[in-house]
Amino acid sequence: MAELNKKDQEKEFLELKEQMKEYADKVGIKLNPNEKVVDGVIRGLLRNKQFKGDIYCPCRIVTGNKEKDKEIACPCVFHRGEIELQQHCKCSLFFEK
Question: Which positions of the chain have pLDDT values less than 50?
């Protein structure tokens, strides 16, 4: 995978952050109110995309099994249950409204 220049990296970062915000709004949750945490998770997602091929949750282990790993691509299949139990997902990107 080709490395992006700084301008393209920032564009990709802002686009993904907006996509996650739109997703959260659509499903009735919100992004973490701590912008630094959100930015760190978004950068982790993009790092995983660059090195592991998809925006895998940075707090979960990628197994290398594409079918199994689909579950941990953000938003992962676990985030809704985690939000119900502890008001936020494991990586703290998404919070209960």
Answer: 1
